[in-house]
């Protein structure tokens, strides 16, 4: 069985589902390039919990966790099956790492899950196990979550973190596709440079070291899935940035692919 990479995907606004733009093209290319996974484990910026929770529903519902968008978004369903047996395997790996997981038999798929997965695998025929993130525990904790999940990549499972490289909704009306927020490109460049240098310590300390970190991320939750993908991506880091543009002038849509060996 071919080893799969780990991915970090910037999922953008819910409107990405209707207007996929450049990120839609990049994800379609990835789906063509990757071996087909037997299942997907995905950590979403839109499922927050105090400890790791693992979705174990056999038939997870599509969650429309947003408001004020066109009805067409609320009509979308992503009817991928769940994978209770794999969810138990995920919980076991997290438990072995001392991370005290909880299985949730009712959790559905929020838009941080179904928006990018519709672009990767529109047929919704690959089982999906969602995983929560823990924003109060910071990047190092999420890196540990990813490292615990790394063995799944040799079991035909695609591990994904879904968030956004920059995410400041205070800038929703301040910029547009023709006028870019000044902090976005310096932050993108810093992350890419630290990835290329395999500088895990700096990436974990991004809040102090990255330019304009607090503008790029007033809160952590959309960057934290990056560390899940980093951890699952193994060593050496072997990070590849895939440029998917900048939406609305402030949402960087970068994708990262990690192809290191699980520890």
Automatic annotation (TrEMBL):
The keyword Repressor does not apply. Its cofactor is Zn(2+). The lineage of its organism: Bacteria, Pseudomonadati, Pseudomonadota, Gammaproteobacteria, Lysobacterales. It comes from the Bacteria. Keywords: Dioxygenase, Metal-binding, Oxidoreductase, Zinc. This is Dioxygenase. The keyword GTP-binding does not apply. PANTHER family: 4,5-DOPA DIOXYGENASE EXTRADIOL-LIKE PROTEIN. Pfam families: LigB.
């Amino acid at each position: 069985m071919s080893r799969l990479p780990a991915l970090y995907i910037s999922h953008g606004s819910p409107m990405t589902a209707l207007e996929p733009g450049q990120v839609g093209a990049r994800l379609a290319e990835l789906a063509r390039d990757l071996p087909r996974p037997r299942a997907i484990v995905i950590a979403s910026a839109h499922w927050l919990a105090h400890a790791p929770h693992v979705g174990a529903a056999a038939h997870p519902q599509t969650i429309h966790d947003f408001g004020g968008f066109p009805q067409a978004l609320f009509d979308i369903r992503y009817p991928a099956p769940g994978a209770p047996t794999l969810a138990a395997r995920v919980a076991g790996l997290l438990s072995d790492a001392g991370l005290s997981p909880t299985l949730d038999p009712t959790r559905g798929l929020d838009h941080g899950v179904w928006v990018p997965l519709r672009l990767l695998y529109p047929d919704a025929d690959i089982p999906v196990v969602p995983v929560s993130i823990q924003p109060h525990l910071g990047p190092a904790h999420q890196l540990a979550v990813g490292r615990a999940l790394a063995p799944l990549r040799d079991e035909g499972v695609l591990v994904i973190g879904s968030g956004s490289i920059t995410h400041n909704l205070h800038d929703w009306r301040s910029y547009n596709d023709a006028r870019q927020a000044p902090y976005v490109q310096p932050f993108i460049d810093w992350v890419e440079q630290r990835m290329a240098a395999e500088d895990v310590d700096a990436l974990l300390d991004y809040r102090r070291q990255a330019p304009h970190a607090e503008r790029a991320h007033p809160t952590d939750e959309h960057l934290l899935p990056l560390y899940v993908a980093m951890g699952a991506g193994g060593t050496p880091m072997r990070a590849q940035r895939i440029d998917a543009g900048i939406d609305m002038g402030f949402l960087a849509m970068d994708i990262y692919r990690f192809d290191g060996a699980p520890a």
